[in-house]
């Protein structure tokens, strides 16, 4: 089956399943959303952009894509430097930027649960009044999403001391290729049963599924960092 599903079919089937303003097929908008910050990587051929607002939008998109054998490229805020969020021929760009809610801050357990599109710095700012910190700080902290950080296992300067994204991910809710929503990992400190699917998922760059919810381990508020040269 060809990956090049006609745009009319995308509009009729997927457009009907998604709410207003979620599916975009305007060529100029597609072009503007077709690449990350990588230089010289190919980034052409997207048939549609889905600006997901909910887990249901992601599930509908994955079901449609599987039914029609269409490739899907998940996207956070497209700050990646390797072309991982770039369009491939015939694909649907599945953008998570609009899913930015903080769902729960558990100060007693020192965890936070967020949607994938929240910007790393916005999360840090939301935690500060609770006396809590989320240490991973890629250089793109002010512009990259937590979902993208998870998908790339992002690191940064503070990670030399505090560890990288993988060290803070407790639980993920992910949508698989057929639209199934599943939960991997545990919210508790101890979680030793079975295979470490959470560890496998972190850094998998969207190849195993779409991250739609993340529960992160937190630490007490960090002091202002000092950098010595
Ligand atoms: C100025 C600058 C500084 C940077 N500094 C660092 C640094 O210090 N350390 C570092 O590690 N990186 C750094 N980066 C690279 C980049 O910011 C990180 O890789 C970041 O984690 C990408 O997040 P994003 O939201 O932009 O993801 P995107 O670029 O949109 O996507 C990155 C990858 O993750 C996948 N993906 C995104 N969201 C999801 C999701 N919800 N579910 C499944 N897959 C998904 C995409 O398909 C793609 O493969 C830097 C980039 C810039 C521009």
Short descriptors:
229 residues, four-stranded mixed β-sheet, 2 domains, Uridine Diphospho-n-acetylenolpyruvylglucosamine Reductase, domain 3, Uridine Diphospho-n-acetylenolpyruvylglucosamine Reductase, domain 2, alpha+beta, globular, binds flavin-adenine dinucleotide
Order of helices and strands: HEHEHEEEEHEHHEEHEE
Structure classification: alpha+beta
Lateral arrangement of strands in the main beta sheet = 5-6-10-8-9
Chain oligomer state:
single chain
Q: Rough shape? A: globular
In short:
The chain has 229 residues and is an alpha+beta fold. 24% of the residues lie in helices and 21% in strands.
Would you kindly provide a written description of the structure presented here, covering whatever features stand out?
The chain is 24% helix and 21% strand. The chain is an alpha+beta fold and 229 residues long. It folds into 2 domains: 7-95, Uridine Diphospho-n-acetylenolpyruvylglucosamine Reductase, domain 2 (2-Layer Sandwich); 102-220, Uridine Diphospho-n-acetylenolpyruvylglucosamine Reductase, domain 3 (2-Layer Sandwich), CATH 3.30.465.10. The strands form 3 sheets. The chain has a 5-stranded antiparallel β-sheet. It has a 4-stranded mixed β-sheet with strand order 1-2-4-3, covered by helices on one side. Helix 1 runs antiparallel to helix 3 (55-68). The longest helix is centred in the N-terminal third of the chain and has 14 residues, at 55-68. The chain starts with 6 loop residues before the first helix and ends in a 9-residue tail after the last strand. It binds flavin-adenine dinucleotide.
